[in-house]
Design goal:
The protein is of the alpha/beta class and 480 residues long. The protein folds into two domains: 2-126 and 291-340 and 347-360, 3-Layer(bba) Sandwich (FAD/NAD(P)-binding domain), CATH 3.50.50.100; 136-289 and 410-473, FAD/NAD(P)-binding domain, CATH 3.50.50.100. It is built from 13 helices and 22 strands. The strands form seven sheets. Strands 5-2-1-9-19 form a five-stranded parallel beta sheet. A four-stranded parallel beta sheet has the order 13-12-11-17. A three-stranded antiparallel beta sheet has the order 6-7-8. A hairpin with a 2-residue loop joins strand 20 (413-419) and strand 21 (422-429). The structure holds flavin-adenine dinucleotide (FAD) and nicotinamide-adenine-dinucleotide. Residues 17-23, 40-43, 49-50, 52-53, 86-87, 123-125, 143-144, 187, 292, 294, 330-332, 339-342, 344 line the site of flavin-adenine dinucleotide. Nicotinamide-adenine-dinucleotide binds at residues 50, 133, 182-188, 190, 219-222, 227-228, 253-254, 286-289, 338-340, 414-416.
């Protein structure tokens, strides 16, 4: 209830931007009773991104991987307020944050609010990079949020239904049934794999007339796909894709996109270049991350951030360089760590510990101040001494509480789904030993790992039910 969330003036106000991996893991672990917490995000739910590629084909339904933020803050409701809005600019010198609520329901325009904060955590993630390549923004689909997956799912069926229309000439039908995926990182690989599965397991059966022309092409600028995985898993993935009949074009850099053709520059084995034209029906663009506008705005205002391109520069305590009272985590930062859910989660847990410590330090400080007042007022020497001893003991505790440790990342490994019930895994044990595996057993591991990582029991159950449903009935091929 609104009354319960009234700010307590004796507590500091902590504003958290975002409801993704970083911010939500912070929210889960923080002792919310120590702060007035305000969460601001345009998305009122947490999204389990590892299963987002599965939503593009209906292997998993999108609501199964969404968890309402209200359920995250339910137990902390007395101390947490949520605003469905975007952080648009930060006045870091005066500790003010401007947020903008875009009202989509009655088209009444956007409303702006200014929030005062003591501490601010920026966990806004990233947007898709296009490198300014002409035509990408207008013609490509991306894969970052739920509406992206819904759009792709709709377009797949739309292209297939149009291609089944008998009057089309061969060239047009082939183009409509050709999906080009740009970017051979994990997002591009997992999407291509999911789409080919959809075709092999369902579409081929339900709509046999499209079978001979359905085609998926994965385009990657580097010499191989999954550059962050070990060599043997890269080779295994490329071989599996060959068996699955996914065309992989490596050393091929996309330069231009129009509404029906991708133009790329391919480097041939002898080092010469050639221009490749790929007519497409569906284009999915997955070339990695770029900074969001609010992050770019911060980078341009804070002098210490001027040289950063990829995101906010932070120190080893995740404090945004050149500011006081602002921390950042996850994909919106530029650090030595990869932009993954794993990193963002560990950073969120770290920050929760840090804020719990800061709150404890505040309590100790005020207790010490009170005791010092009592000591000053004490008339007999014995009680004066006892109180001072207590002050000293609390001061020692305060020093310990204030001595914060820097953030340390512990890499557990990387997993990716590569289609036909196979996955690849680069796992790390005891911080140094590595174990690489690929195949069907790894896929079972992939499934159980992701099920155990799902946000809630409700999510876990829904995902398992989706998988069972697809096993029994196949994927739903109706066009929404
Ligand atoms: P996000 O989780 O992206 O959250 C950002 C939040 O900020 C969102 O709630 C967003 O709505 C909100 N926001 C945006 N703009 C604003 C604003 N202006 N003001 C306030 N809030 C804002 N990583 C893995 O480790 N394993 C995987 O298997 C994996 N699979 C992936 C699959 C896909 C398809 C994708 C796209 C990514 C995957 N990742 C995976 C990467 C992982 O999802 C990201 O690294 C992770 O989401 C980063 O967490 P974050 O909290 O920084 O940002
Ligand atoms: P990425 O940055 O990992 O890969 C993008 C790829 O696109 C690169 O290999 C790059 O060489 C290629 N590329 C860039 N411009 C190109 C062009 N013009 N033409 C052709 N190729 C081009 O991006 P991603 O796959 O979206 O992943 C983003 C982050 O999310 C990564 O850190 C990744 O590890 C993480 N992620 C992890 C998983 C998983 O663990 N299963 C799944 C998805 C994403």
């Amino acid at each position: 209830p609104a009354d319960q969330a009234k700010p307590d003036p004796s507590k500091k106000t902590l504003v958290i931007l975002g409801t993704g991996w970083g911010s939500v893991s912070l929210l889960k672990k923080i002792d919310a009773s120590q702060y007035n917490i305000i969460v601001v995000s345009p998305r009122n739910f947490f999204l389990f991104t590892p299963l987002l590629p599965s939503c593009t084909t209906g292997t998993v339904e999108h609501r199964s991987i969404m968890e309402p933020i209200r359920s995250v803050i339910r137990n902390k409701e007395a101390h947490v307020t949520f605003y469905e809005a975007e952080g648009t600019s930060v006045d870091y010198e005066n500790k003010k944050l401007t947020i903008t609520e875009t009202d989509n329901h009655d088209n009444s325009g956007s409303t702006t609010k200014v929030l005062d904060y003591d501490y601010l955590v920026v966990g806004v993630g990233a947007q898709n990079s296009t490198f300014g390549i002409p035509g990408v923004q207008e013609n490509a689909c991306f894969l970052k949020e739920i509406p992206d997956a819904q759009k792709i799912r709709q377009k797949i069926m739309d292209r297939i239904e149009s291609a089944s229309f008998k009057n089309l000439d061969d060239e047009d039908r082939k183009r409509l049934l050709h999906t080009v995926v740009v970017g051979g990182g994990p997002t591009g690989v997992e999407f291509a794999a999911e789409l080919q599965d959809f075709f092999e397991e369902d579409l081929r059966k339900w709509i046999p007339e499209i079978a001979k022309d359905f085609k998926v092409t994965l385009v990657e600028a580097l010499p191989n796909v999954l550059p962050s995985f070990s060599k043997q898993l890269i080779e295994y993935t490329e071989k599996t894709f060959k068996d699955e009949k996914i065309t992989v074009l490596t050393k091929t850099m996309v330069k231009k996109v129009t509404e029906d053709t991708v133009t790329a520059e391919a480097t041939k084995p002898d080092g010469t270049k050639e221009i490749v034209q790929l007519p497409y029906g569906l284009l999915v663009w997955a070339t990695g991350n770029a900074a969001r506008p609010v992050v770019r705005d911060m980078m341009s205002r804070i002098p210490a951030q001027k040289n950063s391109r990829r995101g906010l520069l932070v120190n080893e305590y995740l404090v945004v360089e050149g500011t006081e009272g602002i921390w950042a985590l996850g994909d919106c930062t530029a650090t030595k760590f990869a932009p993954t859910a794993q990193v963002a989660t560990q950073e969120g847990i770290y920050l929760a510990g840090l804020f719990n410590q800061l709150a404890q330090a505040d309590v100790l400080e005020s207790e010490i101040a009170q005791l010092e007042n009592i000591a000053r007022a004490a008339t007999d020497e014995a009680s004066h001494k006892t109180i001072l001893a207590e002050v000293e003991s609390k001061a020692r505790k305060l020093r310990r509480t204030r001595s914060l440790l820097p953030f340390e990342y512990s890499h557990q490994g990387s997993l990716a789904y590569i289609g036909s019930d196979k996955a690849v895994a680069d796992l790390t044990f005891w911080a140094s030993s590595n174990f690489a595996s690929g195949g069907r057993l790894t896929y079972l591991f992939w499934r159980s790992a992701y099920i155990s990582m799902c946000f809630s029991t409700r999510n876990r159950l829904l995902v398992v039910m989706d998988w069972l449903k697809v096993k029994v009935f196949g994927r739903d091929v109706s066009r929404e």
